[in-house]
Amino acid sequence: MADESRFFSRLRQGLKKTREGLLGRLETFIVGAPLEVAQLDEVEEALLAADLGPRCTAEVMEAARAVVVRREVTTIEELRAHLARHIGRLFTPPPPARPAAVPPRVALFVGTNGSGKTTTIAKLAKRHRDADEGVLLAAGDTFRAAAIEQLQLWGRRIGVDVVAHRAGADPAAVVFDACRAAAARGTAHLLIDTAGRLHTKANLMEELKKIHRVIGREVPGAPHDTFLVLDATTGLNALVQARQFHQAVSISGLIVTKLDGTAKGGAILAIAQDLGIPVRYVGVGESPEDLQPFDPQAFGAALFS
Ligand code: GDP
């Protein structure tokens, strides 16, 4: 099977719960029978149940009603194709990939504990390594000894160096060392893990701002990416925390993990639209290939076909 179709079938498999939730509600529609505008209430309920949120749902439904009223869409099959395309277009397109002028290209990963930061960093590090690009990891979650050990374990497993200090050390110092090391070695990519929980939320946000400042001072133009890692199973509840992280460190891209474990996959669009930032990767399972660069059109198609 070509890479692209293998990729798509993994995405589709990962989105199974959300898709079944959406399409399950449309089962009452008779295939081939003409669509009635009144039936669109079912579609609206399905979108809300998939956690698309009131604003996105209203936007999607307005367009859907318009094409049904104008008879541009007359059957359930055509409606599914329309929804797939329309939802794909609502995402901010990801920016074109560009290497850093001078290495390293620095990516900072933020998000609450358990959202999937460490696993995602490991998966991306493996991807860089497989592409023969140098990569260094920084264990910036010094709040938990287990977080440092977990990153070191991943580093050994995939053959990538990890800059780490002891638990309780200043994470800004770890990040400083990692930036210096990556610059001295000319490493292409530096991926920085951070804490997901501190004594208070204010402490956490201050710590992240400090890390952000250190990176900017040490590497010109960095961080090139600041990724917020979100657990899709929390659905729309992740919106408030996403706004807080965005306010603290200006998120450049979302990484949404565990889409395979939820029927609320629609929240990804609601959150991306609210923050006005692109989704860069999605996690649809636990193996390294299950972290995919996000393709808005493929996402729409995987939800509705
Ligand atoms: P961190 O605390 O943010 O660093 O989170 P971890 O990287 O430790 O991940 C928490 C759990 O989520 C681990 O058990 C991961 O295997 C799991 N996980 C991460 N991404 C995915 C995904 O896309 N799908 C599934 N099913 N599990 C995931």
Summarize the structure.
The protein is an alpha/beta fold and about 300 residues long. It has helices at about 5-15, 15-25, 40-50, 55-70, 75-90, 115-130, 145-160, 170-185, 200-220, 240-250, 265-275, 295-305; strands spanning about 105-110, 135-140, 160-165, 190-195, 225-230, 255, 280-285, 290-295.
Descriptive report:
- The protein has 305 residues and is α/β, with parallel strands linked by helices.
- The chain is built from twelve helices and eight strands.
- The chain has an eight-stranded mixed beta sheet with strand order 3-2-4-1-5-6-7-8, with helices on both faces.
- Strand 6, helix 11 and strand 7 (279-283) form a beta-alpha-beta unit.
- Helix 2 (16-24) runs antiparallel to helix 3 (40-49) and helix 10 (238-249) runs parallel beside helix 11.
- The longest helix is centred in the last third of the chain and has 18 residues, at 201-218.
- The protein starts with a helix and ends with a helix.
